[in-house]
Design a protein that fits this description.
By secondary structure, this protein is an alpha/beta fold. The chain contains five helices and seven strands.
Length: 172
Amino acid sequence: SFITLNNRTTVLEYGTGWSTLIMYHALEHNRAKYGSRPFERCSYPYSLFVIDDQKKYLKISKKRISKFFNNKTRINFIYSEAEMVKYNGKYASQYKHHPLVNPDFIYLDGPDQFKIKGKINNFTIKHPDMMPMACDILYYEHFLTPGTIIVVDGRMANVRFLKSNLQRKWNY
């Protein structure tokens, strides 16, 4: 609903699943309704970029998309391991390889905290007592256009971390 109601054109999804199919469908709806190139600085109109640290789930999502859509030219599946990092002195995770895209909609539901590589000072979030803590969005926040929407799926601790580190004035 956020994608269609707000005419989003470029989506970046962290973690893949059924949400990938739904968001691709919403982008296809917007493309059919609004046309091919919504504005000048949109290099990837009506495109979905999906980054995940598990090839298994990327493969499942590709198959699922193929089942429902013939034309898959505007979807990009990116595999990347996720690693432990320090962001502003705080422990977090980040994907090693990030697509070069400036989305107007971001869906955060990955990486899987139990697949994170490495430790820092013997600390890792790859433990049942810890919580997912992705920081990727913080690195490119200043490039996001005003009006960009970020949706976080079930990661309240991650939301608090993002909220305390985002520099621009966001509505929550």
